[in-house]
Design goal:
By secondary structure, this protein is an alpha/beta fold. It is 36% helix and 13% strand. It folds into 4 domains: 9-134 and 151-201 and 337-369, 3-Layer(aba) Sandwich (Rossmann fold), CATH 3.40.50.10540; 229-319, formyl-coa transferase, domain 3 (2-Layer Sandwich); 393-593 and 730-801, Rossmann fold (3-Layer(aba) Sandwich); 620-720, formyl-coa transferase, domain 3, CATH 3.30.1540.10. The protein has 31 helices and 24 strands. It starts with 8 loop residues before the first strand and ends in an 18-residue tail after the last helix.
Length: 807
């Protein structure tokens, strides 16, 4: 048994969370990660979000989590230039972050065998390359804060440094994608990760695509879900009601029979217009019950619901206890999340080892024998021009967002991805349409279906019929990967077990990505991104301290999909080495626990309970959203800018940009701690300053001075941002029925290509039935016509035909 990346050397030249998480994910997969540090060490070594004292010679708990299983080498230039060059010359992957002394282009030039991964706020060679950024500023530019909260207060960013974590995840995916190609070409690559693009991918749901198809922008939706998160006798409980039936079931749960009789309340916008009335009634009902009582009844009625986790409670949830979702840090013993996936087929689990002390391994690497990277043994240029996953075929039995995004990224990088749905049960996102259901072709006007399914082919197969299941199994013989994200009982009910699939193709990789996993007390509980955000603690960190937590509303779909893709890349590497397929489980909830790790770590290590602070953050002060004088297209006085001062130097720059006002002269404000203590005062002054300017005027003044600041954009507005235009992040494509529209590229760009990531748009329902069944399975035109006549395949939804073709 061996870990999939055993023998792969990664040199980590970064500081902070993004690079550390990227290389942690690679270390968890078995790679040897050498953390190269300056003499003072990574600033994370001394970090605690709660301000806990880190003893001299010790390291912060977050650092110890992120640096598990790595080694540390201190390099002081120019004296240690030979040591650094030796490490870089032996590296398969090199990761570099913003603001460092290492130029990614130079590293790529000097070490052509290596995959060099760059993580920067805007992307390399961006017109904003010198502009500083923080997590909150990137979220503001992505547009998500303007979808969250009440108009009575400023738009609110998600707490917990979300973009740092997700851009690290994307960097790890980019590294393994480029390496997959390098193993066939002998050439390394340059992977250019834009954190702004990562923020757009993970915090908004194809809003620019929506606007480009609809011909009008999405309306700002600064309102809470309803029902949302509500206080109970002993905590909070949250709900995610999506369908009309779920609303009716919730009405029964909440003991509101009159609501069931009011058909208008099935529509969310009607519920939103009566928010005060409905929320008061739900709050009163929830307050009479414990969280467990409500969850038990919600499970019985199949209403998607979740406890609201936080740093001191989430580790005790029964599902996480039974599934061993948390374990002890190997050095300090505090609690940290386990990896988010379960491999098989002899792919060894790499046990966590202690995070290294600063410079602990200098002697090891000074005396080590020279090492040749794995790709150096491959003739260079052997497969030049090939996309990384060209030749890989994926059967994509997924729907909604978290599952389809896995195949979407694989298709961007060359895989043949066959999206399998049915006319009886089309992908649920097709119902989120711009047309009235019943109009001709209504199912093809769903931008949020089009976004994560671009680049695929589409096959409709009625899996409720014996003939449909036979077709699906025959297709397995022509696939490398099968992926599904239904509740566990669905594929099991169809007989699509791993044993059945590997009986057809013995090296198949079967990826199962249910909400809560294949086992455990929550196995059959209904799950959405929002329930993951509530259970994991992401919601606890989002919103205002005097109000219930806010549901972030969506980032766990693409984030869970990203973690599943990463696990699949590990499985592919294991198959490359051993010839073995595997059964791979990657559930949404365990991805969420990793992204939300800091609050569990902080509580278990220091007894400090992190919580929501509105737009404030332990990483930056002052930080807030301030109203400006201009108005959005709606005409409301609801335009805002985000200011986020992360360093003392940026504070000095802010003072200068404001004209050195006397209120900023207090020496206590020269430290982040002092500024946090005086945050109310600073907010008042900054709000007055911003109110006299438009958002563009205010941001221009501060950005030139070196202050992280940005307008808080509406969801469709990132399409006009200069760094995105320069990088051609939004690509123009054509599609039958819907015509021309914009699709977003992937935030990890490979220098070797593709030149265009969205070469085709999302397929029409059943668009490729004939070519797939004819070319892969050898069916005749007559056989295909019979299947269509019997409702086994088709190109239009057929809700009334669920029982046809069942024999």
């Amino acid at each position: 048994m061996s870990a999939p990346l055993e023998g792969v050397r990664v040199v980590d030249l970064t500081e902070g969370i993004a690079g550390a998480y990227a290389t942690k994910l690679l270390a968890d997969g078995g790679a040897e990660v050498v953390k190269v540090e300056r003499p003072g060490g990574d600033w994370l070594r001394g970090w605690s979000a709660s301000g806990a004292t880190i003893a001299a010679g010790d390291d912060g708990a977050l650092f110890q989590f992120l640096a598990s299983s790595k080694t540390s080498v201190v390099v002081s230039l120019p004296g240690d230039a030979d040591l650094l060059d030796s490490l870089l010359s032996s590296a398969d992957i090199v990761v570099v972050g913003p603001g460092g002394a290492h130029d990614p282009h130079a590293l790529r030039r000097d070490h052509p065998h290596a995959v060099v991964v760059s993580i920067t706020p805007w992307g390399l060679d961006s017109p904003w390359a010198d502009r500083p950024a923080t997590d909150a500023v990137l979220q503001a530019l992505a547009g998500a804060p303007m979808t969250r909260g009440s108009r009575a207060r400023p738009p609110v960013a998600q707490g917990g440094q979300l973009v740092e974590w997700t851009s690290g995840m994307i960097a790890a995916i980019g590294a393994l994608t480029a390496r997959w190609r390098a193993l066939s070409t002998g050439d390394g690559d340059l992977v250019d990760v834009s954190q702004l693009e990562a923020a757009i991918l993970t915090t908004t749901m194809y809003s620019v695509t929506w606007a480009s198809i609809a011909g009008t922008p999405m309306r700002p939706n600064r309102s809470r879900n309803l029902p949302a998160i509500h206080r109970t006798k002993d905590g909070y409980v949250g709900f995610m009601v999506v369908t009309g039936q779920q609303w009716l079931d919730f009405c029964a749960l909440a003991e509101q029979p009159d609501w069931m009789d009011d058909e208008s309340l099935i529509r969310f916008h009607v519920r939103a217009s009566r928010s005060a009335e409905l929320t008061a009634a739900i709050d009163a009902w929830a307050a009479r019950h414990t969280t467990e009582e409500i969850l038990d009844l919600a499970d019985a009625l199949r209403v998607p619901a979740s406890p609201v986790g936080r740093g001191d409670t989430v580790v005790g949830f029964d599902h996480f206890v039974e599934r061993h979702g948390f374990l002890a840090n190997p050095r300090r013993g505090f609690t940290q999340p386990d990896v988010s996936y379960t491999l098989s087929a002899g792919a060894a689990r790499r046990p966590f080892t202690q995070a290294p002390r600063l410079g602990e391994h200098n002697d090891r690497y000074r005396s080590a024998k020279p090492r040749l990277p794995e790709v150096s043994a491959v003739p260079r240029g052997q497969a030049a021009g090939r996309l990384p996953f060209e030749g890989l075929r994926v059967l994509d039995f997924t729907m909604n967002w978290a599952g389809p995004i896995v195949g979407n990224v694989l298709a961007m990088f060359g895989a043949d991805v066959i999206h399998v749905e049915s006319i009886q049960r089309p992908d649920a996102l097709r119902f989120n349409t711009l047309r009235q259901i019943g109009e001709p072709g209504w199912w093809e006007w769903a931008p949020q279906y089009i976004g994560p399914n671009a680049g695929k082919r589409d096959l409709t197969v009625n899996m409720g019929s014996e003939r449909g299941r036979e077709l699906a199994l025959r297709l397995v013989a022509h696939a490398d990967v099968v992926i599904e994200n239904y509740s566990p009982r669905v594929m099991d009910g169809w007989g699509m077990t791993y044993d059945k699939l590997r009986g057809v193709k013995d090296d198949i990789i079967y990826v199962r990505a249910p909400a809560y996993g294949l086992t455990g007390p929550w196995r059959d509980r209904g799950g959405y991104a929002q329930t993951m955000e509530m259970a994991s603690g992401l919601a606890w960190m989002t919103g205002w301290p005097d109000e219930p937590p806010e549901i972030p509303n969506g980032p766990m779909d693409p984030t869970a999909g990203g973690h599943t893709l990463l696990a699949l890349l590990l499985a592919l590497e294991h198959r490359r080495r051993t010839g073995l397929g595997m059964h791979l489980e990657s559930s949404m909830i365990f991805s969420a626990l990793n992204i939300a790790a800091e609050q569990v770590i902080e509580y278990s290590a220091y007894g400090a309970l992190l919580s929501r602070e509105g737009n404030r953050s332990p990483y930056a002060a002052p930080q807030g959203a301030y109203r400006t004088s201009d108005r959005p297209p709606t005409g409301d006085l609801d335009r805002w800018m985000m200011i986020s001062v992360a360093t003392d130097g940026q504070w000095e720059a802010l003072k200068g940009a404001l004209g050195c006002p006397t209120w900023a002269d207090d020496p206590a404000l020269d430290t982040r701690e002092g500024r946090r203590a005086a945050h109310d005062l600073l907010d008042n002054h900054l709000a007055t300053w911003a109110a006299a300017r438009t958002s563009d005027e205010a941001v221009a003044t501060l950005a030139v001075a070196g202050v992280p600041a940005a307008p808080v954009l509406l969801q469709h507005e990132p399409a006009r941002l200069e760094p995105l235009l320069a990088r051609k992040f939004y690509e123009s494509v054509e599609r039958p029925i819907t015509g021309g529209h914009l699709l977003q590229a992937y935030p990890a760009r490979l220098a070797s290509g593709p030149a265009m990531y969205n070469r085709t748009s999302a397929p029409l329902l059943g668009q490729h039935n004939t070519e797939i069944l004819r070319d892969l399975l050898g069916l005749t035109d007559e056989q295909i016509k019979t299947l269509e006549a019997d409702g086994v395949i088709g190109t239009e939804p057929d809700a009334g035909g669920r029982n046809r073709g069942m024999q």
